Amino acid sequence: MSANRESIYQFLQFCDRHIQGRERSDAQSFLNEFFKAFGHESAVRAGATFELPIPKASVKGHIGYADLWWARDSLATLLIEMKSRGGNLNRHYGQAWDYCKQLKPRLA
Known about the structure:
The chain is an alpha+beta fold.
């Protein structure tokens, strides 16, 4: 099953009712419902990983954690880094980019 008007509408309704815009408390619920909107049972059942540890990816060189990593064999890989509502996303773009650079060897 793929996304359709009804599944997207249900996702938007879920977000309106249950997502407050807080990264830590909303991320996994939001992402599971997002995957459901596109025909998957859940993010994990689709093969995605929550909180993937990424060595040397934090600002201080420690382990960073990608909110969602979905590597697929013959299709594009997806990295999602969630942020709380109202934050400056430009400030966090580098974090996602650093995660991708650290994960590049895993893609080869």
